[in-house]
Structures are given as C-alpha cells and as structure tokens.
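hey can u run this one w/ tryptophanyl-5'AMP bound, need the structure tokens asap thx
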Amino acid sequence: MKKDTILTGVRVSDGLTLGNFLGAYVPMANLARKYVKTYRFNAFIPDLHSITTPVDYGGLQKNAMNSIKYYLAAGFDDLRDNENVSFYRQSRLSAHSELAWILDCFATMGEISRMTQYKEKSDGRQESVSVGLFNYPVLMAADILLYDAKYVPVGEDQFQHIELARDLGMRMNKKFGSGDDELFGLPEKTSEQVKFMDLTQGLRIRSLTEPEKKMSKSHESANSKILLDDDPAAAAKKIMSATTDNVGVIQFDMFNQPGVSNLLQILSLLSGVSLSEVVGEWSGKTSYGELKRATATVVEAFLMDFQARVAAISDDEVTLLLEKGEARMRPLTQEKIERVQRAVGLR
Ligand code: TYM
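ok here u go:
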C-alpha cells in the first residue's frame, strides 16, 4: 500500500529564527523519528517562494544549503539515508509550478485576497508588491497536493494556507475526481494536524520585544528575534532584555502575559521538559529575572550545540542528498501532473 506523506517547507532567506526552528524543523524531525517506517517524509526548500519578495538573490543557494543542514541538525541526521526521507528543491521539480498554474485557474481572487499573510506582508502597498506574493498560497497548495500530503507540520501562521490547500483539493476532487479514485489526497484539517503533532494548539513563538506579535525574520528590530546564526552569548542577552509585563507574578497566560508565557514556552521546548512541568515549576514565582536567566542559559547552550552540528555538515553532503531526493521525486511528480492534466482535459 502507498504510504501517506508528511511534508513541510521553510522559505529560505537570511536569518531564520528560533520560531522557524521550533515551529517547523523540530516538529518535522520529531514526527520523522517517531513514524519513519509508516509515512514518507518530504522536507523541501520552497525556493520559488523565496523570490516572492525582494531578497539577496546571490545568497539563495547558500541559504538553501543551510536549510537542509538545519533539518539534519534538528534530528534528521541519522535518517538522511532512509528511503522514506527525501530532501528536494521546489524549483528543480517543475510539476510544482505547473500544478500551481492549474490551481490558479480554480482559485478565486476573493479567497486569495482573504489570506492574512499577504495582507500583512504587503502592508497596504498592494500596488507595488509582486503578483507572486499574492499567489504564494496557491503555490503552497500545489506543494502539498502534488504529493497528496496528509500532515503538514507548520506554525500557526500557516494554518490558513493549509485550509486553502484542503479547499482547493476538495474543489478539484468534486469537479474532476471519480468516486474512490480521487484526484488529490487532502491534508487533514488543522485541528487534526495539531492533535497529530501532539500539541494543544498551534505553535507561535512570540517576538521578544512585542510579545503580542509572532517572532518574525522580517521584523526589523534585532532584539525581537533569536536568529539561528546569532552569537550564543548575544542571543542570551536578547532574552535578558525581553519585554515582560508588570503583573509581578509568573503565570502561563498568553493573553495577559504574553512575554512571560513566551519565555516559559521557549524554556520548555528547548529543555525538552513538558510545558505543564515548566509551568508547574515557575508559576507563582515573582522573579522575572530568574526566569529570564534560566531561559537565556538554555538558549545559549542550544545555539552552541546546534551551530556546531550545522558546521560539521559539508555542502557536498547536502548536494548529494538534494540530488538523490529530486531524482526520487521527479517520476512521482511527473505522473501526478500528467494525471491532473488529463483530468482537466489538457491531455
Ligand atoms: P515561513 O518560511 O514563513 O515559515 C517557515 C515555518 O516556520 C514557522 N514559523 C513559526 N512557528 C512558530 N512561531 C513562529 N514565530 C514562527 N515563524 C515562522 C511557519 O509557520 C512555517 O511552518 N509558506 C511557508 C513555506 C512553504 C510551505 C509549503 C510549508 C511553502 N510551501 C508547503 C509547508 C508546506 C512559509 O513561508 O513559511
């Protein structure tokens, strides 16, 4: 029987954050460690997504290499040769773009205009942002539907895009599927995804300076985010200067105390201790300084270890992995796009 696919991608750009790491790389690696025998794992580089906003074009290759190193360092290292694990670049498998175009012709302007990430990133400057940025969620739907992916570990900010992939897949199945032989396998609803990832809710690491917002690589303030290539001691200082509140008592309450709750969450995720245990240990204490110190210590230790592991992986190893993954995916994606072309009458 065909194995179901679990798939994720991280848009490569300079300066990926701790939010990206904890929201995407780690959950993907944890699922792979648990389920590598029963599912296929596709960890890919959405490099076509990278150019939807102006970037350092000359740095794209290096950033793509780094992203694969991050997957390996996040827990894929000893699974890299497993036949169920594939690494690949979206731009090297043309079926991604071909399927995106077909889906474009069935997605509506109305539904894509409602996607909040586009609105946030375009920041009211609709006239001057690229059509690619507008279209970004449809390409993402193609990334998912091309492989009939069932689970897509992402942070909470991407849930809306997964629901869109589900809607588009369902629409195509209704129009072009035939009974049991559906055109696309659909991603599970995000509420089911969260359960599968063993979370109580979607994951959202907050900005250190404005904790009501998510930690974001595009945020200008360097103190708002921990970058994966930050100097570990400097990163610890950022935690020490994180914005908290004046309630005066530590409690896990994302709504009223997002800064303190964010620190508890980071502490739990990086120390491997469950959130309820961490909250149990710190709740009721009054020294925010102590909580910051404990969090700063785990962040510093994590970055030292992580960066050493990344540095030990060579570009040549990564190139080989990508070529192997792309060779494995090419016939599968070709078969799928031909099937879709047949279904819509192009063949
Ligand atoms: P991107 O590059 O914006 O973010 C990559 C991943 O990091 C997660 N993330 C966070 N998680 C928790 N807290 C945060 N503060 C935080 N910031 C970012 C994001 O939710 C995401 O999981 N559209 C995707 C890339 C993509 C993709 C796909 C993902 C393209 N095609 C197909 C899955 C499947 C993106 O730009 O994510």
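Residues 7-11, 19-20, 22-24, 46, 49, 140, 143-144, 152, 154-155, 157-158, 161, 203-205, 214-215 surround tryptophanyl-5'AMP (CB under 6 Å). anyway lmk if its weird
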